[in-house]
Amino acid sequence: MSNQKKNLEQAIETVKGHLSTMKYGSITLIVQDQHVVQIEKNEKIRLK
């Protein structure tokens, strides 16, 4: 398996993990030379 494909699959698994625990917010992928180099999670907490 190529490094690019491994990188993409690792990024997808990381994003899935963040999505399963987050109610409100955003996830940003930073890409450089066709590789995901950073994942940013910005979670919001809504007060009722």
Helix-strand makeup class:
alpha+beta
User: Would you list the SSEs in sequence order as H and E?
Assistant: HEE
Overall spatial form: elongated
Strands side by side in the biggest sheet? 1-2
- pLDDT below 50 for ≥5 consecutive residues: which ranges? none
Largest beta-sheet details:
2 strands, antiparallel
**Proportion of helical residues:** 25-40%
* H/I helix tally: 1
State the distance separating the first and last CA atoms: 47 Å
Q: How much of the sequence is in beta strands?
A: 35-45%
Provide a quick synopsis of the model:
The chain is α+β, with helices and mostly antiparallel strands. It has one helix at 3-21; strands at residues 24-32, 35-44.
How would you describe the overall organization of this protein?
With 48 residues, the chain is of the alpha+beta class. Helices cover 40% and strands 40% of the residues. Strands 1-2 form a two-stranded antiparallel sheet. The radius of gyration is 13 Å and the shape is elongated. 0% of the residues are buried.
